[in-house]
Amino acid sequence: MRQTLLTFLSTLPPDLLRERRPGFGQGSILETLTHVADCYGGWTSEVLMEEPWAFAEGVEPTLDALRTRFERVDALLARALQSTRLEAGEWTHTTRQGDALLVSGPWLLLHPLTHEFHHKGQVVALARVLGHPVPPDVDLDLPPPGGWGG
């Protein structure tokens, strides 16, 4: 689902991926997508799977580095989908800010996924604002495995 977006982004000038525009996600395309990947790391890796996640130190510098980070996300999700922790019911998690938050296994998978689609919309809008219309095959919905056409 994100591969089509990353392929489109690889056609853009690298400097454009770092261009900051306040009000769009985390400011730039690379910053926003780094944030998305690390959202999976925080919620799905650290909270659901109880595995440490190597958070980015700032923004991933290139699209290739970002692809590598998302490969780690995909491997994490494959493990998480097989985890018995998905069936652990609800429990209280204390956030880094010290807030108590009631969470569940399904929420710890679904929250980062919906978060990714929210930010994908921002990335697409930012690309348009920066003068690069997104091709229609950059679908903002979650397509079925065989695609929408069949």
Structure in words:
GO terms for molecular function: metal ion binding. Keywords: Metal-binding. A divalent metal cation binds at residues 35, 115, 119. This is DinB family protein. InterPro entries: DinB, DinB/YfiT-like. This protein is mainly alpha-helical and 150 residues long. The chain has one domain (3-129): dinb family like domain (Four Helix Bundle (Hemerythrin (Met), subunit A)), CATH 1.20.120.450. It contains 5 helices and 2 strands, in the order H-H-H-H-E-E-H. The chain has a two-stranded antiparallel sheet with strand order 1-2. Strand 1 and strand 2 (100-104) form a beta hairpin. The longest helix is centred in the C-terminal third of the chain and has 25 residues, at 105-129. The chain starts with a helix and ends in a 21-residue tail after the last helix.
Number of strand elements: 2
Q: Tell me the series of helices and strands, N- to C-terminal.
A: HHHHEEH
Contiguous runs where pLDDT drops below 50 for at least 5 residues = none
CATH-assigned homologous superfamily: dinb family like domain
Tally of structural domains: 1
User: Into which percentage range does the β-strand content fall?
Assistant: 5-15%
CATH class: Mainly Alpha
Widest sheet: strand ordering: 1-2
- How does the helix and strand content classify structurally? mainly alpha
Q: Which whole number gives the mean pLDDT?
A: 89
For the sheet with most strands, the description reads: 2 strands, antiparallel
Estimated radius of gyration: 16 Å
Q: Globular, elongated, flat, extended or rod-shaped: what is the shape?
A: globular
In the CATH scheme, what's the topology name?
Four Helix Bundle (Hemerythrin (Met), subunit A)
Number of helices: 5
CATH architecture: Up-down Bundle
Helix content: 40-55%
Head-to-tail CA distance between termini: 16 Å
Family: Belongs to the DinB family.
Protein name: DinB family protein
Binding site for a divalent metal cation: 35, 115, 119
GO molecular function: metal ion binding
